[in-house]
Design a protein that fits this description.
about 70 residues, 3 strands, elongated
Length: about 70
């Protein structure tokens, strides 16, 4: 099967306490283009791109994927 081009970005959101103190969401993996067979495969690649120091905070992570 021929792959398709997707883009993804990974964002971490602040905790409620951090948000009250003025914290905001931040991009931890910038917009990245990948070739994948489907959106699920592209999402898996995005998950693998999350830096190790954020792996314990997955409940605050948002992965956005779109076809290019």
């Amino acid at each position: 099967m021929k792959g398709k081009v997707f883009q993804f970005v990974v964002v971490i959101h602040p905790t409620d306490k951090e948000a009250e103190e003025g914290g905001s969401s931040k991009v931890i993996v910038p917009v990245t283009a990948v070739i994948a067979n489907d959106q699920n495969s592209a999402t898996l690649q995005a998950g693998r791109a999350i830096p190790e120091e954020y792996l314990s905070k997955l409940d605050r992570i948002e992965v956005a994927v779109r076809p290019f």
